[in-house]
Design goal:
Elements (H helix, E strand, L loop, with lengths): L1 E7 L3 E7 L5 E7 L6 H14 L4 H6 L1 E7 L2 H7 L6 E6 L5 H4 L24 E4 L2 E2 L5 E3 L5 H11 L4 E5 L8 H13 L4 E4 H4 L5 H31 L6 E4 L5 E3 H6 L7 H17 L4 E6 L4 E7 L2 E2 L1 E2 L2 E3 L2 E3 L3 E2 L2 E3 L5 E5 L5 E7 L18 H8 L16 H16 L3 H23 L11 E5 L7 H8 L3 E4 L6 H7 L4 E11 L5 H21 L7 E10 L7 E4 L9 H17 L9 E11 L35 E7 L2 E9 L9 E2 L2 E5 L2 E5 L3 E5 L5 E5 L5
Parallel strand pairs: 1-4, 4-11, 5-6, 5-9, 9-10, 13-23, 23-24, 30-32
Antiparallel strand pairs: 1-2, 2-3, 7-8, 11-12, 13-14, 14-15, 14-20, 16-19, 17-18, 21-22, 24-35, 25-28, 26-27, 26-28, 29-30, 31-34, 32-33, 34-35
Helix pairs in contact: 3-8, 10-15, 11-12, 11-13, 12-13, 13-14
Length: about 700
């Protein structure tokens, strides 16, 4: 029997499969925005061929199929989506356009804002009112609903987002409106803010609901097509879809809540990083994932994945908990260009898989990071994608010469190296944003270099930010798919309380707790997770009375015991001191939200972490097989442009490496779907799990 994980990114689709014996096979296929099903079928065919069986037999023997998708985020970035109307409380229809008064560039009033996703004539006020306590002040005017439905029918609206004032405290009016509207418009997709988020924040909640309404019909249609195609090819098991929080859900739920899948693929990378940290005994790990479109960075901090209560995607707030991932436009297909002042820039525009970089010979005219790496000698023209694609070096040379080198008065290799350095600086800034700006010292972290492109930059990036150790996993090129392998079903729920901590009525606390537990158990039962396979994590969002933002504090002990409140207060003050440099223990605290994460129990490899060992890095001298100090045979010497000139470096192949073999930079290590660059003063060894451990030395200059 097989377990299959498929991660479809913006440029490549990654595949990994394991059989009963633990044998893994991988594939990497260019993705297609126009026809996202095509690369999935191609990749599955390739996996079946590696096991020497037909696709139908391969799928019939598959017992678990997990999928990370970019269909939702691609539709958002391309301005696609269902024609959507927004129903709000009367008098509040412009909240979506008014946004918040905050600007990302507070001194630049010329910065363009993202377009309003629902035009004003499709934003309609409903006569009803709920007060801030969740008490109905004015009931829903049912006589308005038939007229409203007729207007939506005439406008050929495909989806309706409903976000009523204070529905986060009491969803009764939203639920009532949806029931009546769907009787009149049964074929229109309707989503409620209370189904997605119970947090305060009218604009953020409205934005989240509108995004879900626009994107869910598109994702739902894609998932139904995927299920039909794979069933026709022999798949018999349900398809599980990755969510922003690193957990899984089924096709039904994913099709109704597309906004939960916007970071579906990158979340697999964070999950994979968490597994890697456990295996290697690393408490702090920077997970850097560079594919064809972007560079994603996330943290494993004190052995835990970092979550954020909300995020901003393409300029739109999403008020849902998700793994904390920072993305910059620095992938292999990111385009190099000159601004009006003649300054070299890289990204965020990407050439994608088609037309792709100039060297792909698919019509791309603009130079990319991949073109620069080819000119520098970092990648081969005949071994790209495991030899499945031949790159045209002449086209890469011509593109860089025309667009970058000549305007800047540089040679083509100098221009290629400049592109490499600008991309490197973008990555370093992203790592600093996730570490230094949060008060973390990057020198205490190791770096997991994953994705098809980051191993070319990893040692230079580590040197630049002060990281002393890099781990390149054996399956680095398909790492997000590998992370999906270990993901499990997960439910997240929230109840808004907004009471002074210690003065919360026990009835309110118990009611919120019981409702969340019931909702979680109902969802996990629907997903087929048995009662003995469930685990629960409670937490509370707390803040000082005059603050806008909360800090999430884990609830330790018995949730129903009010005696936990002093402990929550103590941990909040400690967290506030750590994050902001001060605390005010004399102040009362506001309990804003109670949260529950319920999930299928983790099936994890044994952690290598020993609490008695303070040093979190792997000692290069303690890697298994240290006595095997023989060097692998280099397969060639190659001219590579580094630090201002071409120089000869040895080239090794990953398959020739053995435990304990000591490699020193500068060198290149070729692997199917990726190449690792060892900079000067770097030492690399392979560990027992076939991960490459690179220790970063100090430069002499």
């Amino acid at each position: 029997m097989f377990i299959v994980a498929v991660d479809v990114g913006g440029t490549f689709a990654d595949f990994i499969v394991c059989d009963e014996g633990g044998c893994a096979a991988t594939a990497k296929i260019p993705s297609s925005i126009e026809n996202p099903l095509q690369p999935i079928i191609r990749g599955l065919n390739e996996l079946a061929e590696q096991f020497n069986i037909p696709l139908e037999e391969f799928l019939a023997q598959t017992e678990k199929f997990t999928h990370g998708t970019t269909v939702g985020i691609n539709a958002l970035l391309q301005g696609q989506g269902a024609k959507t109307a927004l129903i709000t409380t009367e008098g509040f229809r412009d909240a979506l356009e008014l946004r918040r008064s905050r600007l990302n560039e507070q001194w630049d009033f010329s910065v363009s804002l993202p377009s309003v996703l629902v035009p004003r004539h499709l934003r309609i006020g409903l006569r009803e009112r709920m007060d801030y306590r969740g008490v109905s002040v004015k009931p829903v005017d049912r006589t308005q609903i038939p007229m409203l439905a007729e207007f939506l029918r005439q406008e050929e609206v495909e989806a309706v987002a409903v976000c009523l004032l204070f529905a986060c405290r009491n969803p009764k009016h939203e639920v009532e409106f949806k029931e009546h509207l769907q009787e009149l418009l049964p074929n229109v997709f309707v989503t409620l803010s209370s189904e997605l988020s119970s947090q305060l924040g009218e604009y953020e909640r409205t934005s989240t609901t509108v995004l879900n309404a626009r994107l869910s019909p598109i994702l739902g249609n894609y998932l139904q097509d995927l299920r039909a195609h794979l069933r026709a090819k022999g798949l018999r098991v349900p398809i599980s879809i990755a969510q922003n929080n690193g957990g899984l859900t089924d096709l039904t739920q994913a099709g109704r809540r597309a906004v939960n899948t916007l970071f579906s693929g990158p979340a697999g990378g964070v999950k994979g990083g968490w597994i890697l940290a456990r295996e290697q005994g690393l408490s702090d790990l920077v997970v850097g994932d560079m594919g064809g479109t972007s560079f994603d960075v996330s943290l494993i901090r004190q052995g835990m994945m970092e979550l954020t209560p909300q995020a901003e995607i393409a300029g739109y707030p999403v008020q849902l908990p998700m793994l904390n991932i920072h993305t910059v436009g620095a992938g292999g297909g990111s385009i190099a260009w000159l601004d009006k002042g003649g300054m070299l820039k890289v990204g965020p525009q990407s050439a994608g898989a088609k037309p792709g970089p100039a060297c792909y010979e698919l019509g791309g005219q603009e130079p990319t990071i991949t073109d620069a790496a080819l000119i520098m000698g970092l990648i081969d023209d005949r071994s790209f994608l495991g030899g499945r694609m031949v790159l045209n070096k002449e086209l890469a040379y011509a593109s860089i010469e025309k667009n970058i080198a000549k305007p800047l008065g540089l040679s083509v290799p100098e221009a290629a190296y400049a592109i490499y350095q600008v991309a490197l600086s973008l990555m370093a800034d992203a790592v600093y944003l996730m570490t230094v700006k949060k008060g973390y010292d990057p020198r205490s972290f190791a770096l997991a270099a994953v994705g098809g492109a980051l191993p070319l930059f990893a040692t230079a990036l580590a040197k630049g930010v002060g990281i002393r150790q890099v781990v390149v996993p054996e399956l680095a090129p398909v790492f997000c798919a590998q992370g999906l392998f270990h993901s499990n079903f997960q439910f997240e729920g929230l109840r808004n309380l907004y009471e002074v901590l210690g003065e919360v009525p026990f009835l309110s606390w118990s009611k919120a707790m019981l409702e969340l537990r019931f909702q979680a158990d109902e969802e996990l039962s629907r997903l087929g997770v048995g009662e003995d396979q469930r685990e629960y994590r409670w937490s509370a969002d707390l803040k000082y009375p005059d603050q806008h933002h909360e800090i999430n504090i884990p609830v330790r002990g018995i949730v129903s015991d009010p005696e936990i409140w002093p402990q929550l207060a103590k941990e909040f003050h400690e967290a506030h001191e750590r994050l902001y440099g001060y605390c005010q223990p004399e102040k009362s605290l506001v309990l804003v939200n109670l949260r529950l994460v319920a999930q299928e129990k983790e099936r994890l490899p044994q952690s290598a972490m020993d609490p008695r060992i303070e040093e979190s890095f792997i000692n290069a001298n303690s890697i298994a097989g240290e006595n095997n100090t023989a060097l692998p045979t280099s397969i060639e010497m190659k001219m590579v442009y580094l630090h201002g000139g071409f120089r000869k470096v040895e080239v090794f192949h990953w398959k020739d490496l053995r435990n304990g073999m000591d490699l020193r930079g500068p060198a290149l290590i070729k692997k199917e779907y990726t190449t690792i660059l060892l900079e000067e003063n770097c030492q690399a060894k392979l560990d027992e799990a076939k991960n490459l451990i690179i220790n970063i030395g100090k430069d002499r200059h």
